[in-house]
Amino acid sequence: MIEGILAWQAIIFVSIALGGRKRGWIVGFWVVWTLLQVFALWLSVIQFGTIWLAWSIFGSKTSSAVEAPPPKLDPAVEAERLAKQKREDDEFKEAHRLWVSHLSGALRAGRWIPNGSAGRLLAKYPAPKHARKTWKQSVGESTPEETLRLQFDKLNAQHLARQKIARKDFFAAVEKNPLTDEQIHACVCMDDAVMVVAAAGSGKTSTMVAKTGYALHEGLATSEQILLLAFNRATADEVGQRIAEQLKGVPQVEKVRSNTFHAFGIDVIAKATGKKPSLAPWVDPSNPGADVREVGDIIRMLSEQDKTFKRDWDLFRTVYARDVGKWGQPDEPEAYANGVRGFRTARGEVVKSKEERTIADWLFYNGVNYEYERPYEHETADHQHRQYFPDFYYPDAKLYHEHFALNDKGQAPKHFQDYLSGVRWKRELHARMGTALFETTSHGLLTGDAIPALEHALIERGVQPVFDPSKEVTGLPRVHEQDLARSFRVFQQHVKNNGLTHQDLLAALKAQSKDGFGARLRMYLSIYERIAAEWEKRLQRGNFIDFEDMLILAAEHVESGAYKSPYTLILADEFQDSSRARIRLLRALSNQSDPPAHLCVVGDDWQGINRFAGSDITVMTEFEKTFDNATRLSLSTTFRCPQDLCNVSSQFVQANPAQIKKKVKTTNPLTKTPILAYGFADQDSIAGYVEKQLVHMHQLAVEGKVTPANGSHITVMLLGRYRDDKPTALESWQRRFGDKLKIEFRTAHGSKGLEAEYVFVLNVVEGTRGFPSQIQDDPALQLAMPAPDPFPFAEERRLFYVAMTRARKQVRLYTTLGQPSRFLVELAKKEHIRIEPIDGEALEPCPECGRGVLQLRSGPFGDFHGCSRFPACTFKRKVDQGTATPAQPRTRAQRLPASTKAGDQCPVCRGGVIQSRNGRNGPFLGCSRFREGCRATGNTGQG
Q1: Rounded to the nearest 10 degrees, what angle do helices 518-542 and 502-512 cross at?
Q2: Contact 436, 393 (CB under 8 A)
């Protein structure tokens, strides 16, 4: 077509050229003709495109149908092909039938099918394979194992339903309360490894007793094949006694074994070696704290015999005992003085960072004369800069010292605005003025390079540091040596329980030194290894073992086969308190037989409070990773606390997202307010008010208006964070009210597993030895632990949950209006409680931090409301600004005990240091936290 158009165009152009007078007509004809040809060409293109599109979609099929018709099938060949397919299908059906028959024969009728059975049966009876089809095409499920698991789940559900009926009477009577459906499921389920996550008061021990009885009644195990393991002796004895009482009609039930892990470990070692090992006397449970004292004795001995150890130990306890945190993370101020919020040093001044405190303490103990933030010798104040105050000045060396918060790349933390320009300005200023400047950085301090460099610089300028670890402290007291000894003992427990080698610790040290205080960690590890070496020598000399050895050696003997376990049913209580060594022993016992022994562990990660003893709470959150074919069940019904208390305590502990989530419901019908909080002007007032409440409760009991739930006495449990929270009048109260009230004192740790109708939690205050306790775990412990718990006060939060959930009727919390615990402030802010002021005004939570409360303070510009957490929180509000709730008035003065002297920890607030002060009436003793609300005072002649 295109060639024709071009030919006609040529003819027309010639006609136009020769047309003469007819040229106009010819041009008009040409235009019309050209338009028609273009339109025709467009239609052709459209037609071609349509044909091409159709071919692209259908062409291959059409062409094959047209051009290459399929050959006609040979009827004989086709018949053979179909016959072959039928044979393959029939062969698979028969193989599948035989496979199912083998499996059915291998399973015991009327029994729970463990979830690990699928894998074991497939190993013994491999699934048939179809010649041309996948398993999914043949059967419907993706794999043979999935087929078995789905079928076993159905069979187990049917078995559980049958057992609820068949053993109805047993489940209703085996304990004082009929078992819940969750408890029955835990009894009947016999999967390879079962973890029962149990709420407080949900009947953990009852479930273990019932499961033991169920297994015996069903013939799943003989009494000699059942082993129950507990965290401590009291629990082991209780479980054994409950089994003897509740299952007394079962033949040979007395042969069921109930032991602590350690007692069982000793027996394993004795049977494997033929010789019962001796426990070192300093780790005997009947002598609490003896292990820490032994570590202290080792430290003293090494200090006397080894000069290098003595210097390292003295340097650590004086200068490096306190960590500085990770680089780049903001420090929360702990002290206030002369307008500076920060951290108190050994000499007494307040510096702006923990790193500066470390430097200042090194200077103090080395006798170096220094001035902190003394005004620069030249005037620098102008329209852009205030007067310059260098970090340190050494008059004897005429040397200025700036400590810059810079990392190894010379970078400042992100929250430090324009910091580098300030660094440059200071350097240029010293160069311009000709003053000597020495620099250290965060990187240098953390790696350990800064202090030696500082010492060298001072020596070069004629100042010779002389280390004196016995120098009298006038500011922040040294960390108590017993606390350091306890830290090393806990570290040792984690190292041994986790089976860590020297190389493992070095690898952890390298990892944590990237942004941590590497110099301190190296010193800590070096000191520990020398202590641990002497510890092991003492064990060898006495032919002793310690608790960790019991578990480690026992696990080794089970793993090697030197000990043959007779147990097919293994139960473990308080699983949240397990260490890695306990886990190793449980795995060894379970895996020694084929199929494995049934393992059932019961625990509550919300009550994981024994980290100091080597426990690792991740054993619960990582249960499925640790044990093959693991199943997780739950006990969410409590028989103890009222529902409102369940709700408050559950929400409180689950603020930590790492805790296993569960919703707790109760059988307790009480609806009366289950949680009360009282605020006092000072801690001395708490005991008096508690006594008034006991008098009132006793009177109601005498009048019959309050009756005990069980027995003849109303039970009252007084709880404290520490032993020294025990009221001095306790014995007097027990004598006065003992005819109607059973009153006892426990620490929060010691209350675990116990309960009472009324629980009084004393001294729920903010402070070093308050609740939460702010005696923080040494960061060095992380070298020996799998993973840190980043949530603030995570273990203290769990401990407070334990304290609250001991109550069957009511829990009462007692605090001071000046320093209420952040836990109470949190509960009050969420309107779970109201802190009722007994001798003061109602409290208002701080609107800025939400962790403190507002207090009335005085300043140069009049009265104002400030946060009780000052200096950590600097919120202020004038008194005349609107307040929905009155703030707490000034705390009245409180006398110090006669034995108090300067340098002691304040016995009133437990967070400050007693200092000598001068007042209108002469010198007196006062607390360093005076501006924070502590009004403790005493005479300088005390002590």
Answers
A1: 160
A2: no
Max CA distance (Å), the chain = 143
pTM: 0.76
> Bridge-partner residues for 403, per DSSP?
440
DSSP 8-state code for residue 421: H
**Can you read off the two tokens belonging to residue 927?**
């607390």
Between the alpha carbon of residue 520 and those of residues 323, 366, 490, 517, 540, the distances in Å are 8, 18, 17, 6, 30
Distances (CA, A) of 71 to 5, 64, 68, 84, 524: 47, 12, 9, 21, 86
Question: Phi/psi zone of residue 212: left (φ > 0), alpha (ψ -120 to 50 degrees), beta?
Answer: alpha
Q: Supply the pLDDT for residue 868.
A: 72
pLDDT in tens, 543-575: 999 999 999 999 999 999 999 999 999 999 999
Structure tokens at 830: 């969420």
Alpha helices in 464-546 (DSSP H): 481-497, 502-512, 518-542
The string of pLDDT tens digits covering residues 798-850 is 999 999 999 999 999 999 887 889 999 999 988 898 888 887 666 677 777 76
Tally of CB atoms within 10 A around 234: 12
Distances from the Cα of 868 to the Cα of 5, 772, 875, 890, angstroms: 98, 16, 9, 11
Report yes or no: 265 and 231 within 8 Å, Cβ to Cβ: no
Closest of 532, 520, 518 to residue 488, by C-alpha: 532
Other C-beta atoms closer than 10 Å to the C-beta of 275 total 10
**DSSP state at residue 268:** H
Q: Compute the CA torsion angle 326, 327, 329, 334 (nearest 10 deg).
A: 70
CATH superfamily entry for domain 645-840: P-loop containing nucleotide triphosphate hydrolases (3.40.50.300)
469-489 pLDDT per residue, tens = 999 998 889 999 999 999 999
Detail the residues annotated as belonging to a binding site for ATP: 198-205
Output the pLDDT for position 319. 95
Q: Where are the strands (E) in 574-692, listed by range? A: 598-603, 630-635, 637-638, 665-666, 675-680
Mean pLDDT of all residues belonging to the chain: 84
Q: Which of 762, 709, 710, 715 minimizes the C-alpha distance to 737?
A: 715
857 has a pLDDT exceeding 70: no
Tell me the binding residues. Answer: 198-205
Residue 49: pLDDT band by 50, 70, 90 thresholds? very low
Spatial distance between the Cα atoms of 366 and 347, rounded to a whole number of angstroms: 12
Q: In angstroms, rounded to a whole number, what is the distance separating the alpha carbons of residues 385 and 31?
A: 86
Task: Report residue 75: phi and psi, to 5°.
Answer: -55, -35
Give the contacts of 840 (CB within 8 A, at least 6 positions apart).
679, 680, 681, 817, 888, 889
According to the model, what pLDDT value does residue 63 have? 41
Q: Does the pLDDT at position 695 exceed 50?
A: yes
- pLDDT, average across residues 263-280: 94
Beta pairing partners, 811: 675, 759
Q: Which of 434, 433, 438 is nearest to 379 (CA)?
A: 433
What HEC string does 646-680 produce?
HHHHHHHHCCCCCCCCCCCEECCCCCCCCEEEEEE
Q: Name the nearest CA neighbour of 326 among 445, 439, 438, 410.
A: 445
Does pLDDT of 30 surpass 60?
A: no
pLDDT of residue 512: 86
What is the DSSP secondary structure assignment for residue 116, as one 8-state letter? Answer: T
783 and 505 in contact (C-beta within 8 Å)?
Answer: yes
What CA–CA distance (Å, rounded) separates 631 from 153?
Answer: 12
pLDDT band at 168 (very low <50, low <70, confident <90, very high): very high
Task: Confirm or reject CATH 3.90.1570.30 for domain 180-277+547-634, answering yes or no.
Answer: no
The angle at the Cα of 875, spanning 762 to 873, to the nearest 5 degrees, equals 55
User: Tell me, what's the pLDDT at 96?
Assistant: 78
